[in-house]
Design goal:
Layout lengths: L6 E5 L4 H12 L5 E8 L2 E9 L15 E2 L5 H13 L9 H4 L13 H5 L20 H10 L16 H14 L3 H13 L26 H10 L1 H7 L12 H5 L8 E2 L1 H12 L3 E2 L2 E2 L3 H7 L4 E4 L7 E4 L16 E5 L5 E5 L4 E7 L9 H17 L1
Antiparallel strand pairs: 1-3, 2-3, 2-12, 4-5, 6-7, 8-9, 10-11, 11-12
Length: 384
């Protein structure tokens, strides 16, 4: 059964298959509301949106609707670190403790920043149980991370730092600049470039936010089996228990959780991606050098991720480098968010594309972004 939906926005002729793929996701009943965008040489060649902001399908997804993109926010966090690197204020080879002295406890004295950026620092989760509301207490979380031991010899394994990634890097930004990461991103990136992306969202934007439509909770039996089969995954993704967090609450939206709760849409996410895809320059403003980006794309590790169900992984400095479904060429890089959001960048083609939606898919393969990525790949052959 086809679901009728009106797709809004614009799409350059070579990218019309992308619009069809976007529309197909709705026709198959896979979406509630979503947006998709592509930039080429810093220009928006695709900017699409459609569907609804709410589960009841009463409020239309509009041109400037924004939504939580979860871990796709890590791109923005990594960008902030690389801006500081480019300014000579941070060196990724330095120990985290050089900038955050309290971090130098329990075998973490020499862990370099690059291990955090490449998810190999051994700090993917917490040893103590984290109540759901504690995730909003920056100083409390930072104190827990500072006193904790690594789960493995730093640099020896890959293990996705789901939430800790943002707290550790965010604390480095705070120690170096005196600003929270959300404030630094807003003042140095979002506001100067007119990019509608937020890490720590003011209530003045509430009317334009799409609600997250969460899937059914995982049963206790499945959680028990998950713990038996993938102990690290359960320790990371269920401490705090993400199923207990209200992603549509003002508390979640206003907090600064730089690995997980950035709010934007496909347009603004692709615009951030364009900064990196275009060698550090966007809208005639240079934020960082091409050299810094090229170093960020140097492979730091490769192997099975012991947190994400032993999936193959390869990381640069803050970006994923291994994904046959989504990457375009040898200098492509990306990151994704829980439930489906995604941003992919290609330095050679000066191209970025992004997908943001409100219906989360957590279990099983999500065909929506794969279908869109395939359409982008086909369109590029015509456009370039």
């Amino acid at each position: 059964m086809k679901h009728k939906i009106e797709i809004h926005g614009h799409c350059a002729d070579p990218f019309l298959p992308v619009k069809e793929a976007f529309k197909q996701n709705f026709e198959l009943g896979l979406e509630v509301g979503a947006s998709f965008a592509v930039t080429l040489n810093g220009q928006l060649v695709v900017d699409l949106w459609g569907g609804y902001k709410d589960k009841a399908k009463l409020q239309l997804w509009e041109e400037n609707t924004i939504v939580n993109v979860f871990s796709t926010t890590k791109i923005m966090t990594a960008l902030c670190i690389h801006i500081l690197v480019d300014r000579g204020l941070v060196n990724v080879d330095d120990p985290v403790a050089k900038y955050w002295p309290e971090f130098a406890q329990n075998g973490k004295e020499l862990i370099p920043i690059k291990f955090v950026l490449s998810h190999s620092a051994g700090l993917p989760g917490f040893d103590v149980q984290i109540p759901e509301n504690a995730i909003y207490d920056w100083d409390r979380i930072i104190g827990i991370i500072a006193s904790q031991k690594p789960w493995w010899k730093p640099g020896s394994k890959i293990g996705y730092h789901s939430i800790t990634f943002g707290f550790i890097l965010g604390e480095i930004v705070r120690r170096v600049t005196g600003k929270t990461l959300g404030t630094f991103f807003r003042e140095e990136v979002a506001e100067p470039l007119g990019i509608d992306f937020h890490i720590g969202l003011s209530d003045k934007f509430d009317e334009k936010i799409a609600d997250i439509v969460v899937p059914e909770r995982i049963s206790r039996i499945k959680l028990f089996l998950l713990g038996l089969l993938f102990r690290n995954a359960k320790k990371v993704f269920f401490n705090p228990d993400l199923q207990q967090i209200d992603f549509n609450s003002r508390e979640w939206r206003s907090a600064e959780i730089p690995a997980s709760n950035g709010h934007g849409n496909a347009r603004s996410t692709a615009q951030v991606g364009a900064i990196l895809a275009c060698g550090g320059k966007y809208k005639d403003k240079r934020l960082l050098s091409l050299n810094t980006i090229e170093k960020a794309l140097e492979e730091q590790n490769r192997g099975k991720d012991i947190v994400t169900f032993r999936q193959p992984a390869s990381f640069g400095l803050g970006f994923g480098l291994l994904s046959e479904d989504f990457l375009i060429g040898p200098r492509s890089f990306f990151w994704s968010g829980a439930g489906g959001s995604k941003c992919v960048m290609d330095l050679d083609k000066k191209l970025s594309y992004a997908y943001a939606m409100n219906k989360m898919v957590l279990l099983g393969e999500d065909s929506r972004p794969i279908r869109l990525a395939q359409a982008v790949k086909e369109a590029i052959k015509k456009a370039l």
